[in-house]
Amino acid sequence: MKSLLVLLLTLSAHGYENMIVKGYSSCIACHKSAEGGGLLTEYGKYISNTSSYISSKNFKTDQSRFNYALQFRYAKIDANGSKRSFPMQSDILTNINFKEAGEVFIDIARAPESQAIASGIEEPKQSDLWFFRKAIYHYKNFFIGRQRFNLGLNLVDHTTLNKSLNRMNVSDLASTIGLLKVTKDSSKKVFLFGPSFQENRINKETGIAVDYRKYISKNLNVGGFSYYSLGETIDRGSIGLNFKATISKWALFYEGVYSRREFKKGSSLDQNSSLIRLSFFPYMSTLIFINYEFANRNKNFELEETRVGFGTRLKIWKWISFQYDLKKIERNSVEENISIAQLFLNIWG
């Protein structure tokens, strides 16, 4: 149960699936960051309003060199009859645009105590619950700072096996320096990463990563990523392939990831995981989705897991969204049924 709660704590781009249905294969039109997620552009705020079930008629936005947003999520989880309701991670997102001199993104987050414990802090203090999710400086194609280690598909659900299994017991927040180039046809990113001052204390790692996405058309894009790192207790490498396609009000996502870990104690593991997600938008404010996931590991750390889930997300108002989903999990012949209800509050200025 606790491991599930830990994996639910990362917010991502809530609007990506309905944006690709609208014909936006990349993120740069609606988000301040070319990688998507976080703060919205003025056009993104307009789209957020018009895509809501209840939209504001006299909607106006003003361009500013300083932008901010507040994010909050509350969840209720039922896992085989064991119920828990709790406030999840809260975020303060900021951006300062210095025009020709570049721009700075700073995101401050507060995590529940369970996440700090899972990150290796046995008795967390209040200061351990506050951290910089992002503190990054961008100048043209160059960036340097600290941000979440995020490659591949950018989905809301970070409990997916592709994300949760591949970041287990390794640094999730890293110091980075690299290059990012986004055009109307493609996105290319290469960066070095190293330890930050708030990460899993068991394994501080240093490595290199690349991410490439090709926007073949407004309804189809394909991508791939790879990284390799050396850590104090684990060396790891991974490669992933993905694609996103739409037809009318339907969207299909796929991602397959292979990863290998070498433990300093002498053992190793190979891991394969995959995700297929089919989404349908009867209205732009309403999402209905079905997920199928599969993962397996080799005999040293044996795991065979499948997940079948479905759910819905409703964008009630420009600042409020609600999501409910059900999952049936079979892990090494042990079954678990989970329902998750989430309320998202995203206030931007």
**Helix coverage percent of residues?**
10-25%
What name does the CATH topology carry? Porin
| Overall mean pLDDT | 82
Number of helices: 6
Query: Which stretches of 5+ consecutive residues score pLDDT under 50?
Result: 1-15
Radius of gyration: 20 Å
How is this structure best described in words?
The protein has 349 residues and is mainly beta. It has one domain: Porin (Beta Barrel), CATH 2.40.160. The protein is built from 6 helices and 16 strands. The chain has a 16-stranded antiparallel barrel. It is globular.
Index terms:
single chain, 349 residues, mainly beta, Porin, 16-stranded antiparallel barrel, 6 helices, globular, disordered N terminus
What's the topology here?
Elements: H1 2-7, H2 16-21, H3 42-50, E1 66-79, E2 82-97, E3 103-110, H4 113-118, H5 126-129, E4 130-139, E5 142-148, H6 161-164, E6 173-182, E7 186-194, E8 205-217, E9 220-231, E10 234-247, E11 250-263, E12 268-283, E13 286-297, E14 303-317, E15 320-331, E16 334-348
Can I get a quick summary?
With 349 residues, this protein is mainly beta. 10% of the residues lie in helices and 56% in strands.
